Known about the structure:
Blueprint: H1 17-24, E1 36-40, H2 46-55, E2 60-65, H3 68-80, E3 84-88, E4 104-109, H4 116-127, E5 128-139, H5 140-143, H6 149-162, E6 165-172, E7 180-187
Parallel strand pairs: 1-2, 1-4, 2-3, 4-5
Antiparallel strand pairs: 5-7, 6-7
Family: Belongs to the methyltransferase superfamily. Fibrillarin family.
InterPro entries: Fibrillarin, Fibrillarin_CS, SAM-dependent_MTases_sf
Subcellular location: Nucleus, Nucleolus
Amino acid sequence: xxxxxxxxxxxxxxxxxxxxxxxxxxxxxxxxxxxxxxxxxxxxxxxxxxxxxxxxxxxxxxxxxxxxxxxxxxxxxxxxxxxxxxxxxxxxxxxxxxxxxxxxxxxxxxxxxxxxxxxxxxxxxxxxxxxxxxxxxxxxxxxxxxxxxxxxxxxxxxxxxxxxxxxxxxxxxxxxxxxxxxxxxxxx
Length: 188
């Protein structure tokens, strides 16, 4: 109406681990207006676009995705959102994109890899400021399909503490995702 228009968007918790965590009652996601966010496992950029909205034009979202197919969609998201910097690269090798990314306030990771805690730690050591926060979406079956999900989550939390990552909160993503959890913490 008039000159001011407001855009309303649906954020589906069945397709976004971050939306599921928020609806599940996570205390703080630490992604706020003006924040600099490193998003690992950006896929086609749907959740990235919501993070982009949260940080606003004063913030920036560095969106790392390995798949070239998903990366094409991510590039299209970045064309419409100037605060998104797409990086089509393997998150296991942060030295390959270190020249594109400055220090960040928050890392959100949805990489679903057996060594995902190591991947996040590597990126944290390169880019996450001391006192910065991380959110890791853990898919238990990707790490160990034979162990109970709670045991897998506990093992990942132990790995985080060994990497100077201090977990503060853990939440399962039921009913949106089965055998998934989000761990939120502070770096160093």
